[in-house]
């Protein structure tokens, strides 16, 4: 496929650039009035319209005033769940906090009860609908976590659903084991019992079926302590699972530093940070993944993106799509919030949601920018006046045509 008359081809980073640190995020290279050639599912070549060679292609598409972006790379989601939780919405509006709702039997345990009763088929169907919606909105690579099973059997059920999604969808998917998301009721007073179950029973089974790429822990007061998190990360490392952890969402208590110590690919959330966190990330290759739709939805502080960028950290943006804290997987909105609430420039936010999101899934050699040899996962916008129009027009998708593996995506819904 040859795409011609592209108003601007966005994100043409040098192929060897696998992530952007600190002020590097300011640079979002683009070509104006460009063409792009796709072949065998990959980006074959691109250039300026004034230098368009004569190609024999089966399919030519004129973008005619539209922009071409690399697909969003959403590196943190929980899209396998049995039911939404609108009942918590009213409580939240009435002033209850996320912690209060969870403590009253809502939250993660509520989702776990429902998921334990759902069949693999039901979970696959509902997650497929969510994923299809996300793809329509421009997502072209994704990470999906378990964490609503909270038993050996149900965590395996969730991971098998993710494995089926990997096989059924035309985008790269990474799976993360998040059995340590909350303590199930029967282990409320026996934390070590649940940790032992994860380490001695679940991890070996997950490894034997090759069901996970990463390990995650909700390292937070009232959930998993630093010491408990450390035990799980150490055990998972024996199976080659690197951490991507929930850190500093509700309090700042050393979770980021712990993740870095365990060579985490990413530490995610970081709504609560201090100088030590900035300093630790400034010297680390661990990516700080920020989830502004979560802050927006549960009314908690927004992460200090500017401080992190000024500290030379590597930051990514992701959706955190889940039924409790973020019932949305719209990366266009995430990018808008990155600009509006995290005070990132459109260039910084788009880089954080593409190349650095890809890096937070160790996929940036394949997706996340427009480079020869990378996967042809991209989207063509509606006609736009400028790059900034995309985050500016918040809540409205500017994504008009989705291309995955070099072909126009037609969803199955
Ligand atoms: O990333 N913080 C932990 N996990 C999710 C929320 C889970 C839920 O409320 O169901 C999050 O915000
Ligand atoms: Fe999350």
Q: How much helical structure, as a percent, in the residues?
A: 25-40%
The helix/strand class is alpha/beta
Which residue ranges are poorly predicted, with pLDDT under 50 across at least 5 consecutive positions? none
Hetero compounds: N-(iminomethyl)-L-glutamic acid, fe (iii) ion
Radius of gyration using CA atoms only: 21 Å
How many domain units? 2
Fold and architecture overview:
The chain is an alpha/beta fold and 413 residues long. It has 2 domains: 2-70 and 369-408, Urease, subunit C, domain 1 (Roll); 73-359, TIM Barrel (Alpha-Beta Barrel). It contains 15 helices and 16 strands. The strands form 2 sheets. Strands 1, 2, 3, 4, 5, 14, 15 and 16 form an 8-stranded mixed beta sheet that branches. Strand 11 (266-269), helix 9 (275-282) and strand 12 (287-290) form a beta-alpha-beta unit. Helix 4 crosses helix 5 (152-168), helix 6 (191-208) runs parallel beside helix 7 and helix 12 (331-340) runs antiparallel to helix 13. The longest helix has 18 residues, at 191-208. The radius of gyration is 21 Å and the shape is globular. It starts with a strand and ends in a 5-residue tail after the last strand. The mean pLDDT is 97. Residues 107-108, 111, 218, 246, 249, 294, 320, 322-325 line the site of N-(iminomethyl)-L-glutamic acid (NIG).
